[in-house]
Amino acid sequence: MTQKPSRTQALYAWLDERLGLTTINKLVLDRKVPKVNWWYTLGSATLFLFILQVVTGIFLTVYYVPTPDHAYDSVNYIMQGVRFGWLVRGIHHWGASFMVLFVFLHMLRVFYMGAYKYPRELTWMIGVLLFVLTLGMGFTGYLLPWNQRAYWATTVGTQIAGTPPIIGPWITRILRGGEEISALTLSRFFALHIWMIPGLMALLIAVHLYLVIRIGISNPPSKDE
Amino acid sequence: MSSHNPHDLSRRDFFKIVSSFVGSLMGLILGLPLISYFVSPALDEQGGEKWIPAGPLDNYPVGEPTLFTFTLTKQHGWEKTAQSYGVYIIRHSDTEVTVFSNVCTHLACRVRWHDDVSEFICPCHDAHFAEDGTVISGPAPRPLDKYEYKIEDGTLYLHLVEG
Questions:
Q1: How many Cα atoms occupy the beta-carbon half-sphere of B143 within 13 Å?
Q2: In this prediction, does ipTM exceed 0.90?
């Protein structure tokens, strides 16, 4: 008891007094959690993938240029000319597919466990929005390499978006930034992909996590329920 | 459920240690390549050397600093960029010239020869250099840089060394 606190303990105490680290730790990490299984880790796995996508995505913008005359060459340069460019782009590429998969599995788990019910309806609704936005990230990111596959996938995708009656053609024109896919399409998909959608997602994830921490994790359903 | 023996590792401490170890390892595996990725262009082979033909020596009047400009195309990442260079050539005789770089030794603006005062003057921070390249006044830390040259069949060549 009378032992003098070490330097790191003293520094922690100093920071704790000002930041309230112990309180944060108690609320966020020392929460009461029911006896659960591995399926309950899918949300955390998705969050990890989101952070990974943000980090690798930010680093890709160091070399990527969203214009028709340079986009393809800059991606080529990342793959051939930049040290570990293949790794950064590779993680972003595979992370994207895995994120869609994990968001979907997370959603299935919540659905089958009935965890979307009272009082967690808002958490579920925000989660559905996050699922749609994740698909939006996949759709907008697919065009950015500006190769044949990207071009035609976006041609088809924006055409599909135009199928509703009356407003359909307008949706296609707004997505493409005009009649056909052009420099305007590329730059608006880039803006959506790196600023608008991820910004919105970060905000919604914050609310989603707040709700998870505030309400807590639901028990797995039991027989007599 | 605390351990009975104080030397035993509790379940909680075990997970603390394992998580921070795995976390640091993952951070390192991603972090180090990311640093390398960011500094990559600076690590690429730079420069090289080249002899630039500057035309017949007769183009340059004796004793008068004359500007000679040329451009070189270079590959930067995914783009080819034309880089322009300027040198002042002062011919002394049929075998001797001085070739000054027009890059100011202060902060790399381009100096210009002013005939009325017989000085090279930098427009950015008012560095003055004499006709022999030495600093007269201003913030320049050293005289103007000189290029090596050679004269073959009456043609002047400049030795461009970079990096």
A1: 9
A2: no
